[in-house]
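Handout, page 2. Input:
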Amino acid sequence: MRALHYRPLLFALVFCAFRGVAAQGTARLMVGDVISAESGTPLGHAMITVLGMERQTFTSDAGGFAFTGMEPGKYRPRATQIGIVPTEASVELAEGARTARNNVRVKRV
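Output:
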């Protein structure tokens, strides 16, 4: 009998969880890879800064990076790491698009 009192609470929790998952599906992303201009190999553990936004992340071992929750517009991701020339790229997230992708090709110092 006591379990019946928990059903509305359980239903509410499940509903909120599905609603959160659905909202995540509409998140806009800016993604890319940091790649060596000389060899074409990815550069892991480089710092990526979105200029003018105070947002930073590091590339994965495979050189990839991603920023979530981006609004439509033009962005300038900047890659830095010891031994490479700091390099900027241009990325545009179009209105209605969910993902913008651009690679940052860097050169060694």
